[in-house]
Amino acid sequence: MAENGTRHCDVLVVGSGAGGLATAIVARKAGLEVLVVEKEPVFGGTTAYSGGILWIPGNHLAKARGIEDSREAARTYMRGEAGNHFDEARVEAFLENGPRMLEFFERETEVKFALADYPDYHPDRNGGVAIGRSVSALPYDARRLGPEMRRLRKPLETITFLGMMFNSAIADFIAIEGS
Fold this sequence. Notes:
There is one protein chain. This protein is α+β, with helices and mostly antiparallel strands and 179 residues long. 36% of the residues lie in helices and 12% in strands. The strands form three sheets. A three-stranded antiparallel beta sheet has the order 3-5-4, with helices on one face. A two-stranded parallel sheet has the order 1-2. The chain has a two-stranded antiparallel ribbon with strand order 6-7. The N and C termini lie far apart (53 Å). The relative contact order is 0.16. GO terms for molecular function: oxidoreductase activity.
């Protein structure tokens, strides 16, 4: 910190939710100096409340389980769901980079994902699927954070089991690993 109380960084991230922390990790991995600021005394953003399910068409986890999907189907589904708000350039960027993002985080960090057995919101619509696009981060031993563990936002009690967030992706992982 400079004498006048200012800090210099290459990237300033406002908010410590999944999006903010993902941005910080990618920037740091690229060699940039990153500063994350958070208004709350805890970090984790609303991801601690939502369960952190990601919707990523064409992901490697679905492919590994033999689940068929295509960019064309995902694009068709998104066009139908978004209606007049469909933004082709953004959709194409998402369809191209969403799967790459999952692979990056599994390769470059300790985060691991599992396929969540959730359908699209409207799986019967054109391009919709019954399974394969939703993924969830697997449990992480927060004790590895040391004293920073106490600064994690607590999840909602309604989505926890024995103090851990619980969803179908975790149940599926436990079932697969246990068999």
